[in-house]
Specification:
The protein is built from eleven helices and six strands. By secondary structure, it is α/β, with parallel strands linked by helices. The protein has a six-stranded parallel β-sheet with strand order 3-2-1-4-5-6, with helices on both faces. Helix 10 links the parallel strand 4 and strand 5.
């Protein structure tokens, strides 16, 4: 394990010029396989259950996933009156609970997290637009929740979390997968590694100064670390 840690430090120092004190991970699509298709079905169904017309529900579902990275409540509340938004949020959360049971980590993430927790001076964080209770339940079921110092979720936007918490943006590395994430990282000069997914296709390659690397999955990253 010690040799692997040294390999990581050498590898990441070559990429960044320093070894980060904070490793910050987006959740859905970054450390877990992207569940957008299922969640898009869920948000559409949640809207329909709340009396939204079919055509409006379809348009909203498109908007919901074109703005991946923003918190669900922010997106829902921007489109519906308070009571209707509250009902849709409740329906959506309920529909999502069953979905999380079958979620899986992106290849190699569990091993990567196991390695990272051995870095004494590095803290691991989740920064997600998802629901904290869902994220914690999944990580706990995977017996990996204790690896993370804190979960930052949808009570604020990612930009607000970065602004409020200095340790998320200074001497940090952000793992993410969406255009919104990269745009936010650029605002705070946070270097990031993008995990390629359907969502990452929307990233403008001409406006990604903070992106230091694109990876298929964490298995690729581990292979490169072990070769460092």
């Amino acid at each position: 394990m010690i040799s692997n840690i040294c390999s990581f430090q050498a590898y990441i120092n070559r990429l960044l010029g320093f070894v980060p004190k904070s490793l910050v991970f987006d959740f859905d699509g970054t450390i877990t396989f992207n569940s957008d298709f299922l969640k898009k079905q869920n948000i559409k169904k949640a809207a329909l259950m709340s009396g939204v017309e079919q055509s409006d529900a379809c348009r909203f579902a498109d908007f919901f996933f074109q703005n991946s990275g923003l918190g669900r409540e922010v997106k829902i509340q921007s489109h519906f009156p308070p009571e209707k938004a509250k009902e849709i949020i409740t329906n959506y959360n309920r529909l999502n609970r069953d979905m999380w049971r079958d979620l899986e980590f992106v290849d190699g993430f569990a091993e990567f997290a196991e390695l990272m927790k051995e870095l004494n001076e590095t803290e691991l964080y989740i920064l997600s637009g998802g629901k904290q209770s869902e994220i914690c339940a999944f990580l706990e079921a995977q017996k990996i929740l204790p690896y993370f110092t804190k979960i930052f979720s949808d009570d604020m936007t990612k930009a607000e979390h970065f602004e409020k918490n200095k340790f998320l943006r200074e001497n940090a590395l952000f793992f993410c997968d969406s255009k919104y994430d990269v745009t936010t990282a650029n605002l705070f000069d946070v270097p990031c590694i993008v995990v390629l997914s359907e969502v990452s296709r929307n990233i403008n390659k001409n406006d990604n100064s903070c992106v230091i690397k694109y990876i298929k999955d964490f298995r690729q990253l581990l292979t490169e670390i072990h070769s460092a």
